[in-house]
Amino acid sequence: MLKQRVFTALVLAAIFLAALFGLPSGYFSFFIGFVVLIGAWEWANLSGFPAIWQRLAYGLVLLALLVGAALYLGFQGEASPRLNEAAIRELLIVGCGWWALALLLVQGYPSSSVLWGHKTLRLLMGLLVLIPTWVALVYVRQQENGAWLVLLLMLVVAVADSGGYFVGRRFGKHKLAPAVSPGKTWEGFAGGLLANCLLALILSQVLNVSLIIMLVLIVPTSLVSVLGDLLESMVKRHAGVKDSGSILPGHGGILDRVDGITAGAPVFALALLASGAFASGVGG
């Protein structure tokens, strides 16, 4: 099982890095769109719509909404798009607003399931999770150093997850959300955050960038990435399944791998847009 997990992880990393650094920003948007559509396929099943035609229909709805979002942003399929920042800001604010609401739902579980437990409402939740993720990654990648910024986003989420795991395993006593994910602790949560603060300090020195700027980008992203993990765990627990899918041998589904990114990406992108750090309107 371990060999399978490692092999799958290496293949995924190779594919992702090839797309991230090998494709122009506009074409990378299509790659991310494809990943998001796989996520929609899995989310439909988590929502109680397991039939193939139901999952395909949900994917087509999401695809139509992604096309609509792309047109709203001013992206028409070119290799290096110049996007409408006002439109980006609006969609990112909606996405971040959703995660603020999601925090309340996770905190209130299982009682909160009366608000979102209906199958149709869970489908709507999926749209609010997946579409802002795509918008955020499209925006971040189109910056002058966009590929490296996307990689930074992934690193922050990974550090929050790994730091939380190891610190929680060693020192964890107080449960973070016992009804949703019994394994997560407040000590682990703090460990992941402190690890990312250290990352911000290191990067500020290496890149000669203001520590404040790095903290503005990294800390909120680290904090909210945990919420992405908890939300997916909550939905899976409600659906009575362990994994979102089985497309990735040894890892489960796509959503199981990107849950932290779905929450972290809109916050990271909005912080990037609001701060003006590393910003450039030119796609690459």
Word description of this protein:
With 284 residues, this protein is an all-alpha fold. The chain starts with a helix and ends in a 9-residue tail after the last helix. The protein contains 10 helices and 2 strands. The radius of gyration is 18 Å and the shape is globular. It has a two-stranded antiparallel ribbon with strand order 1-2. α3 crosses α6 and α7 packs across α10. The mean pLDDT is 91.
Topology:
Elements: H1 2-22, H2 25-46, H3 52-73, H4 85-107, H5 113-116, H6 119-141, H7 146-171, E1 175-177, E2 181-185, H8 186-206, H9 211-239, H10 254-275
Antiparallel strand pairs: 1-2
Question: How far apart are the termini?
Answer: 39 Å
Query: What portion of the residues fall into strands of 2 or more residues?
Result: under 5%
Strand order of the largest sheet: 1-2
- What about the largest sheet? 2 strands, antiparallel
Number of domains: 1
What share of residues is helical? over 70%
Computed CA radius of gyration, to the nearest angstrom: 18 Å
Principal-axes shape call: globular
Number of helices: 10
Helix-strand topology string: HHHHHHHEEHHH
Uncertain segments are none
The tally of strands reads 2
Structural class: mainly alpha
Average residue-wise pLDDT? 91
